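From the shared-data thread, chain only:
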Amino acid sequence: MTRRSFLATSALAAAASMAGPWGPPPARAQRVDKLTFGTNWKAQAEHGGYYQAVATGLYKKAGLEVTIRMGGPQINHPQLLAAGAIDFNMGSNCFSALNYVKNNIPMVCVGTVFQKDPQVLIAHAGQGHDSLAAMKGKPIMISPVARAGYWQFLRVRFGYTDDQIRTYTFNMAPFLADKSAIQQGFATSEPYKLEKAGANIIVHLLADGGYSSYATTMETSWKLVDEKPDVVQRFVNATIEGWYTYLYGDPTPANALIKKDNPEMTDDQIAYSFAAMKKHGLVDSGDAEKLGIGAMADARWKDFHATMVEAGLYASDLDLRRAYTLQFVNKKHGMQLKKT
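Structure, as tokens:
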């Protein structure tokens, strides 16, 4: 017997002895990485792709055990991300990532879900408030946090002034009582409630007026990006798949989990938000149509930064390379799941 045949025979014998009468030994269990992801508010259709990835096992298939930690009042997920208490966070917009850099916090945006920020201004129909430009000089109800956010875009682009500001307390009664009123909102939420209350409204999406911020971004730590890029990539990929199957497949698994986490959420609200996301192209538009959901572009980040530099919020030499990375997106991942 040659050495080669001896080794081959020995290997077969060893395999047979390991197999026993029931066949070959079981494959080694796949390593599972446990992650916690924090959302920006209570569970809703705007979080559908993440819940879909949990409900249909897409995260599990990617070797991840993902726990969704629901946001809400008094919950500061960016702070928990910076402290290492959660692994990923849903950033509200581009301000979040720029603020990390401004304050020297080593967190980074690794992808986005919304190509268009859902922020809107809402007015009653027939009052002459037919465009964002037409509302210059008119009283507008916005939240205090909006003053240092999208309001700065409106100042730079359309010449809005701070004396227009009235405080929005998230109570829509003042708007309903005054036909000349204008208020802030999200395309997926307030219009539904106002229309349900009988208001005849017009809705202006800031993104369609040139507001270039991304929204519902995926944030994590530079430490995780540097030390475990495969984990980040698997999370991003499975999230993208979750959004494709939520938007173009059967969304009921995600919706069931959304209502479980947030019992106040209704089927009607979910249906309206779902339809609004598709109508306005919040998720799948622009670069996402060519490069896949999650896509980002250097030009968009530079445009947003330049606008906010003009508004006086950031220094012109702020290092954008520390705010975001294109390492995990723009790969057309999951596009085969899109069904038109």
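The chain has 14 helices and ten strands.
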